């Protein structure tokens, strides 16, 4: 287990901060007491309300995980960051024998896997220069157990989780805390688009991230469904992964 990492008075960079889990994480952290949040989004106008509510405590910044240059440009314009929360991702509903499965897999790997790798490469030097900080990756319980109806998504999240383990090893050497977040179904537009109607609110993810960082946990399973899997996975994670 790592030493605890507090979020108060930190400068936080959140991808996909305009909707779903990312938006609630941003709101929760601002209310919790972080100093500033970079709202990394594809459409800057989608976070206008944040600027009205939080004034100079938020900085909208363009970022598209499918556009590598935008990731490095965002890092160059956010030199004071000491916490990165890579929340943005996509989910395509594609089973393995669907005609669109290969295209779906390529699309999800571009965002969920290559996007993560580029985020780590772009922001690791900033975190190091700013004292280590923290890197938080939103993975999924699907990274541990494939859901056949969303097989390509699960494969991309499994790959992202594998990369997260490597990121923890590499960034740990520079004093950066790395947290892998594994939610189950959460009540967002993404969940509704695949027919999930009884999910828990995104606030459980935001609060779980705060608590896990403070406790120095390398993994967190925020909601009740995720916790069921987390309890089974805990021994393996501690004995093998961690």
UniProtKB/TrEMBL annotation:
PANTHER family from the UniProt entry: NADPH-DEPENDENT 1-ACYLDIHYDROXYACETONE PHOSPHATE REDUCTASE (PTHR44169)
Record's keyword terms, sorted: Oxidoreductase
InterPro entries reported in the protein's UniProt record: KR_dom, NAD(P)-bd_dom_sf, Sc_DH/Rdtase_CS, SDR_fam
Name this protein carries in UniProt: SDR family oxidoreductase
Family: Belongs to the short-chain dehydrogenases/reductases (SDR) family.
Superkingdom of the organism of origin: Bacteria
Origin species: Methylophaga marina
Any Pfam family the entry gives: adh_short
Coiled-coil annotated residue ranges, if any: none
